[in-house]
Amino acid sequence: MDKRCHCVCELKNLIKAESTGSRDKFFYPGGGSYKGFWLNSQHHGYGTKTSKNNLNYSGQWSNGKRQGLGSMTKQMQNGETRVIYTGYWENDQKCGSGKQFYRGGVYYGSWKNNRRHGMGLIFYESGDFYLGEWKVDVYHGLGALFYNNGNRFEGYFARGYKNGEGTFYHMKTGQVQKGVWESDVCKSCVVQDEFRNQVHSSTPYPIPPLCIPYPDIFVYDLFRKYLKNVNKPGKCFEELASLKFVHKMRRYAKFEAKNTSNSKVPLDNLTYICTCKKPEKFVILQELLASVNTRHVGDYTVCERCSECDTLTEECTDEEVGVLIDILGTF
């Protein structure tokens, strides 16, 4: 072999081999196979891929990822082929409208990132079904939950539970329950009898009617205190205008600041509590005033002591006692 032939063979070996077009079947070393179209050695177009776990996908591909309409099935040990999902895919994940089969039900609706998201309908094997909004694979938003016994709930859901305002229709008892729910528990509600005539049999727990035994006597007792004003003459326009002005001024007066006194002796109360730390003793203000009037004021200071423990509670000069006497004399 000459040098020229050796160089040509070396250049040909550097070119990467890529598959483009259709292949009958390609077997993977780790298990599984693919049959369909290729583009630059990647699944592209329509194709069928089978994994080593007997999962089979038939549908559209784009650059080696499931993209578009496709169906996922599984081959069971008894030879039965069970459909798992049929719908749209995006970037190798369920996205868009699709139909998913579960062990105990089937779901029709929207998907996003392999999770139920958006509007959807799910049927359960027990006969219950839910129609409404989904978010991150659970009930979330406005929806309606129908039960196998005929009851249904219409309202708001959050994180898979009844949350917020809603209405529960008790079709067996003919009652409508309107209220607020939190984590599937009704916090407050009003129950109405709406479908009593449409049920097969009446409920064993009916709502008792609200009635007054003697309504005439009840109304008379309620308005008896106003009977004395029946024969009074009506007020003229000027009097009504004056009363309206007075009520308006009283309403504004409620916002005015209250005048508070810093004195230890409250002037609006005839008694006050002894400030000594010993057991409290009530002192009558008039008796205190009488005792002060009997004392000589001007030559010495007045000292008040607790009658229980003889503790000095207050010491006043003659000027302070005189002011106190003048203030108390005005009441």
Automatic annotation (TrEMBL):
List, alphabetically, the InterPro entries matched: MORN, MORN3
Query: Can you quote a single GO CC term?
Result: acrosomal vesicle
For this UniProt record, give its keywords in alphabetical order, as a comma-separated list. Answer: Cytoplasmic vesicle, Repeat
For this protein, the record's PANTHER family field holds: MORN REPEAT-CONTAINING PROTEIN 3
Major subcellular location class: cytoplasm
- Organism for this UniProt entry: Glossina palpalis gambiensis
Q: What is this protein called?
A: MORN repeat-containing protein 3
Quote the subcellular location field of this record. Cytoplasmic vesicle, Secretory vesicle, Acrosome
Free-text function comment from the UniProt entry: Assembles a suppression complex (suppresome) by tethering SIRT1 and MDM2 to regulate composite modifications of p53/TP53. Confers both deacetylation-mediated functional inactivation, by SIRT1, and ubiquitination-dependent degradation, by MDM2, of p53/TP53, promoting a proliferative and cell survival behaviors. May play a role in the regulation of spermatogenesis.
